[in-house]
Amino acid sequence: MSGKFWTAENLSISAAEYRKYMKTLSQTKRVYVRIYTDTDHFNSIQFMLNSASGVIFQFEDIVADTPISDMQKLITPSWDTFLNQARLNNRAHINFFYGDPYKLNVCFAFAFDFGKAFEYNANWEFSNAVDAIPTGVDAYRTVVLDNDTVWIVFSKNENLERNTWKKIHQDDILIFLPPAGYGDLVILLPVLGEYFSKHSDCSFIIYTMDLAADEIIHKTFSGYFIRVVHIPNLYPSNMFAPFYYREVAIFAQYIKQIEASNIYNEVKWLAIDGNQLIAQSAYEFLSNMLDVDPDHALEVYQYHTSQLPILDEIEKLRETKRYVVGLQYQSDTLNLKGERIKDWSVENARQFLVMCKDEQIGVVNLVPTIEKDIKWDINAEYVSILDLFTVIAALDCVVSVDSVSGHIAGITGTNNLTIWSAKSYFYKPLMFAYRPLSKNYTICTEAHLTEIPPKLVFEKLKAILIGNLMLQKKRFCMQGVEPAELTNNIEYFCPKAVNKDENR
Fold first, then answer.
1. Are 320 and 361 in contact (CB under 8 A)?
2. Which of 365, 412, 423, 465 lies in the 20 to 30 Å Cα band around 226?
3. Half-sphere exposure of residue 437, counting CA atoms within 13 Å on the CB side?
């Protein structure tokens, strides 16, 4: 790690002097803090650091490898001023060493890089901490504190605290869920249900970066002892996705160390490997990771149902309509500019609704945020992801972009029509790997999603509703299936061909 080092070997300095020093640090692009201390001071330092949010690497009983000769004495901050500034500077990353490495009482080592303009900065700067980890130690647990501080705890294999931890948690299973969309979470639920059933004598700790996963998992699997821990989001909401996933990948390295520690019954990092999705679907990949039968998992899965007032609205609507369908014309997936990339457009949705009205087809809105001037027969924007299972199971069909509504329909056995665009993804769309699990018809285009005409979508919807277009009830799979068979119920739309026909 490049930069200069300064140390403070005791704890007395005026607030004015410390503020002056921190002002110099705050003008830099990044600040890294290493704390070296002896065992006697360890507990008091740990207690005080609990009040500072950020990522803290706690190294247990480790000999630090940074030579004292690389440091020069500069200042001695007080704890109050240090912690106040640490809270204000969200680019401060703290590494913590203890165990009499150089027979110091307490010292701080500040290192900072000036960086370049517009350089990527993240609150979880794991990549800059990898080289600081001494040889012969590895991660064996994580602790998430109330103030969104994440402790990644390292130690040597033969360590008293580590052995004590093993005795307490040998029947626990740790499951880490990387950042994912609601559609990914939905298709994981049947697999988790089968996995929990196979390990019913264990307790489960699930680490997730999505607050909504807590309610979904607890209500769906209330019969098991499950603790859900929320890990703070790995990146600011305006951060670029490629850097975001880079940080997640580095975090995964520590999870693999925890898995290899043999402390817990099992440790699972449920990140989907895109390279594997050519030969198997995302659902099959997750099933393989948890070693469960994908077909049996889907057959026995009991999705959460609720008695919702909207069900009465749907039944009343059926009195005046031939069919009742759901529509999700956009999702919250964003590109690097912060724009929606799975958006069929408000205008297409408006035209589609007119066609449905003319044919006495009632439409339920499944988009969480909508244009106020669109007139829906029923609006389900207030319904939670979990309660969408109940709503979608009551519909005749769901029309959606590649998103959570279609995946829920595939699990509930509701007819579903998905519209895809190659331009709606960072990479070529893995259409087969992410198709809903059953009862699906797909329209895909290499053009923009908005160019798929409402008339085409409506015609396919009508064919599904009246039974002229039969959809596959059996779970859609990729493993053991000939490539030619994957194209069942898929239509490729080419705008140029349509325009050519219209000009004849």
1. no
2. 412
3. 27
User: Please, which residues have CB within 8 angstroms of residue 484's CB and are 6 or more apart in sequence?
Assistant: none
pLDDT, tens digit (0-9, with 9 covering 90-100), for 363-414: 999 988 767 788 899 999 889 999 999 999 999 999 999 999 999 999 999 9
Measured on CA atoms in the order 231, 252, 262, 53, is the torsion positive or negative? negative
Specify the length of the chain in residues. Answer: 504
Q: What is the pLDDT of residue 229?
A: 86
Query: What's the pTM?
Result: 0.78
Instruction: Tokens for 425, please give them.
Output: 């993804």
Amino acid making up residue 263: I
Rounded CA Rg of the chain: 27
First to last CA, the chain: 67
Torsion angle of C-alpha atoms 32, 118, 90, 133, degrees rounded to 10: -30
Number of CB atoms found within 10 A of residue 409's CB: 32
User: Of the given ranges (3-12, 101-110, 318-327, 356-365), which has the lowest mean pLDDT?
Assistant: 3-12
Angle (nearest 5°) at CA 241 between 290 and 133: 70
Contact predicate 403/324, CB 8 Å: no
Q: Residue 212 has which token pair?
A: 């909504």
Q: What's the Cα-to-Cα distance from 295 to each of 268, 389, 482, rounded to whole Å?
A: 21, 19, 18
To 5 degrees, how large is the angle CA 357–CA 358–CA 361?
Answer: 45
- On average, the pLDDT of the chain sits at 77
Residues 275, 433: Cα–Cα separation, whole Å: 11
